[in-house]
Amino acid sequence: MRMRKKPNLDARLVACGDLVVTEPKEHRGCWRELMPQARELRVELGCGKGRFTVGTAQAEPDVLFVAVERVPDAMVIAAERARDMGLQNVFFIDADAADLGEYFAPGEVSRLYINFCDPWPGARYAKRRLTHPGFLLRYRKVLAEGGQIHFKTDNHDLYEWSLFQFPKAGFALSEVTRDLHENGPVGVMTDYEEKFYNLGTPINRCVGTMGKLPEGAEKLLQRREPDRETQAN
């Protein structure tokens, strides 16, 4: 469901001007200048209303966070949350995950977060999933050596499918769980995550650590996805 347009959106974004980067390409390769003392740079793809973003940034004030969100009506809520909490280590950009290389230089990012992305059910839409090997190869271009992808989803089919995709792009899996909060809440939740946790929906999570790209991987990943409609796994 499309988010309702926020009243006074432009004015609200301007009021968060110190945290919203309107020309992110100009910062490519020099994001650390925004926070020279930061020990590393992390990027969240699709921050939504920003609960995870600001909660994580607050918990780790020595880390620089850049949150990517293509829906301004959601991003403004996230930016207002960060502003109201007085955070100075998180910034927001309106960008596309497919174009990360235009915004970040090779090796500039230490960690990527992918939280509750669109599952795009049906094999013909597989290439749109943010855990498709085509995207994973793009992430490799901006991640530092040994960089990580932290992935969470409530969608069982997407998760099981994704577990097979990470190794194709040279990411070793760890911390694989199909019920993250089985024994109580773990880590900072998104708004969406808290809602489904309260409903008893299991949350899946894993970490992919970038290693050597398998031989012939890029050629293999260029193969066309099947055109028939099937479930993700």
Q: State the strand order across the main sheet.
A: 3-2-1-4-5-7-6
CATH superfamily: Vaccinia Virus protein VP39
Q: Tally of extended strands? A: 7
Q: Percentage of helical residues?
A: 25-40%
Distance between the termini: 24 Å
Shape designation: globular
Class from secondary-structure proportions: alpha/beta
Overall pLDDT confidence: 90
Specify the biggest β-sheet: 7 strands, mixed
The CATH topology label is Rossmann fold
How much of the sequence is in beta strands?
A: 15-25%
Explain what this protein looks like in three dimensions.
This protein has 233 residues and is of the alpha/beta class. The chain has one domain: Vaccinia Virus protein VP39 (Rossmann fold), CATH 3.40.50. Helices cover 29% and strands 20% of the residues. The chain is built from eight helices and seven strands. A seven-stranded mixed β-sheet has the order 3-2-1-4-5-7-6, with helices on both faces. Helix 1 runs parallel beside helix 3. It starts with 8 loop residues before the first helix and ends in a 12-residue tail after the last helix. The relative contact order is 0.15. The C terminus is likely disordered.
